[in-house]
Each structure stands twice: as C-alpha cells, then as structure tokens.
Amino acid sequence: METNYKRTVAGSVGAGMAAVFNASGRQYYILEHKTESLYHHAGESQKIIVDQVELGRDSACQVRFDESFETVSRRHAAIVKEGEIWKIIPLSQTNPTFVNGMPIQAETPLKSGDEIRLSSKGPLMGFIVPQGKQSLVSSIGMTERLSLFRKQALRPYKRAIWALTIILILAIAGLVTWNVLQGKKFDKELQNKQEQIEKVQQDLTESDQLINDLNNELIESQNKSQAEQAAVQRKLEQAQARQRELVNQAEDLNRGMQEAIDQAEKAGKDAQNAKAHADELQKQITDMKQKDEALFKSKEETSEGLFGKRK
Questions:
Q1: Which of 73, 143, 265, 295 is the most exposed place for a label (fewest CB within 10 A)?
Q2: Residue 132: what pLDDT?
Q3: 126 touches 111 (CB < 8 A)
Q4: DSSP sequence for 148-171
Q5: In the chain, what are the domain boundaries?
Q6: pLDDT tens digits along 131-180
Q7: Cα 21 to chain center, whole Å?
Q8: Fold of 9-153
Q9: Partners of 124 in the beta sheet?
Q10: How much is the pTM?
Q11: Ordered DSSP codes for the chain
C-alpha cells in the first residue's frame, strides 16, 4: 500500500499552537472509544484539536493502543484535516483499516457518525464532530487545551524534545563549568601575578636600601684612599644597574598584570585587589626612576667632589 502521507510539524505542533492561542473558528472532533484498552476505556471521548494524528501501538502515536492488540500495527493509520474535511489514511502494510465495516485501501473522507476499526479484531472507535458552538476549539477551556496540546502536538516529537532538553542541559552545565573553570583560571593568574609583584617590590625595596647605604658609604669614604673610594663607587654602579634591571622587570610584570586584569573584568571577575597591587607597583617604579635620574645627574658632581678634577 502506497501513500503520500508524511508526519509534519505544521500538522501537529503548528495546529496545536493555533488551537491554544487562536482557537476562534477552529473545529475539533471526538474519537469515541468503544473497546476497552490499557490507554482508553470503553465510552471515553478523546477530543482531537490538531490537524494530524496517528493511531497505532507506537509510543509516538497520539491515539495509542497497548501491545495486547497484536493485529494493530505500530503506525496503523492517520487522521488528517484537509481544508474543511477530515480523512483517514491507512499506513499499515499488513493489517487493514476499516471504516463502517469496510476495509479501505486509500485515504477516505470521514463524516460524523462513522466507525473506525483497526484490523478485523482490533479496537473500534466512533468519529464524532460536535454541532454548533460546541464544535469550536474555543469552547474547550484553556487548561484542557494546554493538556491536549502536550498530548497531541508534542507527543510525536517527545524523543526529539527530550534529546534537545538533555543537550540543552548539558550545554548549560558545560557553560557553567567552563565559566567556573575560567573564573578559577583568572583567580589563579591574578594571584600568581600579585605574588610576583610582591616579590619584585621586595627586591626593589632591598635594592633601594642598598643604594642608599652605598651612597652613605661613598660619602663617608672621603677620608679613605682613592682605591677604597673607587671600590665603593663600583659597588654603587653595580647596584644601580641591578636596580634598573629590576625596574624593567617590574614594568613588564605590570603590563602583564594589566592584561590579566582586563581579561578578568571582561569575564565579570572582581579585580580591585589586583588593581591595587598594580597601582602600588607603578608608584614604586616611578619613584625608582626619579631617584635613578637624580643620581645620574649628580654623578659627575659627586665624583668631582670626592676625587677632584683631573688635570
């Protein structure tokens, strides 16, 4: 049996959305179950608000029957709306579909009062279209419409919805984990930079103290021999050269700290403490440069005062 039938999102989800939010003028029909089953009691009236439903044993079917109905196929038949009429389409290649006791081979229009049977010994249903205002979807309460939407519009895609939900949850969890790891990475990087800054600050302080001590020693060496004075002068120059290296190192470190602060702030991390360390280091760098410049300018004058002008 060949058929052009295809399950569509428009026929289920699209029609279901219209039934929920734009019910005015839309009709629905009822499947009256006449056979007792696991999912439907005899006498139950199942309202159908979408334009496309499938009948069978498959869990994706909106009108589902249990495994005890062995002659009902997984996807046995479909009822679809075309224009203003409904029609039933047989889908099973092995088990027949009956309308009013007659097997059908192709899509067949349905009218209110028709009886549908899935296989010769399968479940029997009545197809009923309410009359008057009761035939409109708008006559069904919103709460019931939402329930029908979930059962009829979403059921064919519940596996895909669950898969998408799981993917979304995993994606959110991954994003949260990534943000946490990134946050820890920024915290660790800032902490490392701060520790490096504290170390170079200590080295600069010690270097500054050494230069001060050597300057004092150089002044006190006026009464000593020129050889002793020259030795102190060499130590002072070496200490100043070392301090310039430390200043250059501190400047590189501060630039790295500024980059780390910028990245941390873009990621929403609090970098105030790191900023304070960077500002403190920058002030120390500026002070060291000013002292070095002052010492350089007075070097010749100091040297002349200690050793005398060469003739």
A1: 143
A2: 87
A3: no
A4: HIIIIISGGGHHHHHHHHHHHHHH
A5: 9-153, 167-307
A6: 988 889 999 999 999 999 989 988 887 766 666 666 677 777 777 666 66
A7: 29
A8: Tumour Suppressor Smad4 (2.60.200)
A9: 117
A10: 0.55
A11: --------HIIIIIHHHHHHH--TT-B-EEEEE-S--SS--TT-EEEE-SSEEEEESSTT-SEE--TT-TTS-TT-EEEEEETTEEEEEE--SSS-EEETTEEESS-EEE-TT-EEEESTTS-EEEEE---GGGGBGGGS-HHHHHHHIIIIISGGGHHHHHHHHHHHHHHHHHHHHHHHHHHHHHHHHHHHHHHHHHHHHHHHHHHHHHHHHHHHHHHHGGGS-HHHHHHHHHHHHHHHHHHHHHHHHHHHHHHHHHHHHHHHHHTT---HHHHHHHHHHHHHHHHHHHHHHHHHHTHHHHHHHHH----
CATH topology of domain 167-307: Methane Monooxygenase Hydroxylase; Chain G, domain 1 (1.20.58)
One-letter identity of residue 142 = M
- 137 and 145 in contact (C-beta within 8 Å)? yes
Find, among 256, 252, 247, the residue nearest to 288 by Cα: 247
Distance CA 166, CA 179 (A): 20
- 49 φ, ψ (degrees, to nearest 5): -110, -5
Distance of CA 13 to the CA centre of its chain: 25
Instruction: Answer whether 9-153 and 167-307 agree in fold.
Output: no
